[in-house]
Write a structure and sequence with these properties.
The chain is of the alpha+beta class. The chain has 17 helices and 10 strands. The longest helix is centred in the middle third of the chain and has 27 residues.
Length: 408
């Protein structure tokens, strides 16, 4: 039997190239990784079981109800965070924000998305070169959030910096952040929260027709008609900002890299833009922007025949399940014609299916439509790319991606 101590996906070299480790993890099945005190779940069927049984596996990772009153527990459950809450609270939060981020709700926003994307391309098209992450993908996702929330243009650089710090801080629980840097990240997070809450307070005084005004003024179903309190609002805003930026920007960068690595597919997509939606889905499957997230067992249970004690930490690896050969024919092949591509778990599954999935899909579709229309002969810039990824076990994305091109 494989020693599970050797199956540690939280090592820097594994994070850079995780897929051989994922294969070994799937072969092992569910196992307890002692160094991280977590049960690792990587097979498709096992991951589906966890995601679709929220009554067994909680997203409230830090809530210990023992020794606390019912009122204290009830208050602690009111996180406002969609990935950090359980039903029934999660259901009420989702109903609050959901209509704005549904396909129907975003239909009127599509012209704005086109304008943002073309405006970004305008900034670099005459240069014949672009660092895609910094000059396109990141500002695209931040500008979309800015439009939805009504954030001032002058705040965009600082908001972008806060988002980057929040992503980096995700590695703290697995020893991926040095103590000195973690202190800086915590201070940054506190500043970010103060900024968001101040913005919300301004909307209470001076409402607008934006998503932020809706969040601070709309009564919550299931909570006697009250609005979000401070803790919930903070959790909701960070959720929407993080979910609406990092996943999408890394999907765009990875998608462009995949096309350049497969020139025939690039030619097909350029010639037929109707292929773009399925290309986006296949990108999300094979280069999952969210590699893994966590749960805690609510009761003594089993996953894949392995006993899981109540209170245990569980790490569910979306990226590994998205390449499970029992579920996907030729799982390591990048196939934009794959019929079942949209079934990937890049956006999760079950009650916690990503609320921002329609927005991410819309941004990805329009981004590639406009990039492939306005830029020709796209290629890597010579000697500028090392194709390394950020040192993060949750979010997978290139540090930078330099491209050259000609104008169409």
């Amino acid at each position: 039997m494989t020693q599970t101590s050797a199956l540690n996906p939280y090592q820097a070299d594994v994070i850079e190239c995780p897929y051989p480790m994922h294969e070994r993890m799937r072969e092992q099945g569910v196992y307890h990784l002692e160094s991280a005190d977590t049960y690792v779940v990587s097979r498709w069927d096992d991951l589906q079981f966890v995601l679709k049984h929220s009554e067994l596996f909680s997203n409230l990772g830090g809530l210990d109800p023992h020794g606390r009153s019912e009122e204290e527990v009830a208050r602690a459950r009111q996180t406002g965070s969609l990935p950090g809450s359980d039903p029934p609270e999660h259901t009420h939060y989702r109903r609050l924000a959901g209509p704005w981020l549904s396909m129907r709700g975003l239909r009127s926003f599509e012209p704005t998305a086109y304008a943002i994307i073309d405006g970004l391309i305008d900034r670099f098209i005459d240069d014949g070169e672009v660092e895609l992450a910094r000059q396109f993908s990141t500002p695209l996702t931040v500008l979309v959030f800015v439009e939805l929330m009504g954030i001032a243009d002058e705040d965009i650089p600082q908001v972008t910096s806060w988002v980057d710090d929040t992503i980096e801080a995700m590695g703290a629980g697995f020893g991926l952040v040095e103590p000195e840097r973690l202190t800086e990240l915590r201070a940054s997070g506190a500043d970010f929260r103060r900024y968001l809450l101040g913005l919300a307070e301004e909307r209470r005084r001076n409402g607008r027709g934006d998503l932020l005004t809706h969040l601070v003024t709309e009564p919550l179903a299931g909570f006697d008609g009250r609005t979000l309190h401070e803790q919930e609002l903070q959790g909701m805003l960070v959720t929407l900002l993080m979910g609406g930026t990092e996943t999408t920007l890394n999907m765009i960068d990875s998608g462009m890299w995949l096309l350049l690595e497969h020139p025939q597919l690039l030619a097909e997509v350029r010639a037929d833009h109707s292929l773009i939606p399925n290309f986006v889905e296949e990108t999300l499957r094979i280069e999952s922007p969210v590699q893994q997230l966590g749960r805690r067992a609510v009761v003594d249970t089993e996953i894949g025949g392995v006993p899981i004690p109540a209170g245990s930490r569980i790490s569910i690896f979306y990226a590994a399940a998205n390449r499970d050969p029992t579920e996907w024919p030729e799982p390591d092949a990048f196939d934009i014609h794959r019929d079942e591509a949209k079934r990937h778990v890049g956006f999760g599954a079950g009650v916690h299916y990503c609320i921002g999935a329609p927005l991410a899909r819309m941004e990805g579709r329009i981004a590639f439509e406009r990039l492939l229309t306005r830029l020709t002969n796209i290629r890597y810039s010579p000697a500028k790319n090392d194709f390394t990824h950020g040192p993060n076990h949750v979010i997978r994305g290139f540090k930078e991606l330099w491209l050259e091109f000609e104008k169409s």
